[in-house]
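hey
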């Protein structure tokens, strides 16, 4: 019982979305957030698939296919990084 009564550093702390809180209060903002989430998951799926294809091409020693999969890996990786950086860019633009 004594341990439960000790100081809790998280008492009074409530979760917050920070600069995204006003955006998530409207239905349009929630739709944008859902669209971003789906897009990010799609990019991540294609990135994992491209990595697996590149590893398979490397294992089987197919040089032509390996060059093609490396190009696809770079494109999908750039798209995933772009999708991951969109919330950061939005925060910078809103807070400026």
């Amino acid at each position: 019982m004594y341990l439960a009564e000790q100081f809790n550093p998280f008492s009074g702390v409530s979760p917050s979305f920070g600069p995204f809180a006003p955006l998530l209060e409207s239905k349009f903002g929630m739709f944008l957030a859902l669209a971003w989430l789906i897009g990010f998951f799609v990019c991540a799926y294609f990135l994992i698939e491209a990595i697996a294809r590149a590893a398979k091409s490397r294992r089987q020693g197919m040089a032509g296919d390996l060059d093609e999969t490396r190009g696809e890996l770079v494109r999908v990786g750039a798209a995933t990084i772009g999708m991951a950086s969109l919330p950061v860019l939005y925060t910078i633009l809103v807070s400026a």
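DSSP finds two helices and no strands in the chain. The first helix runs from residue 27 to 60.
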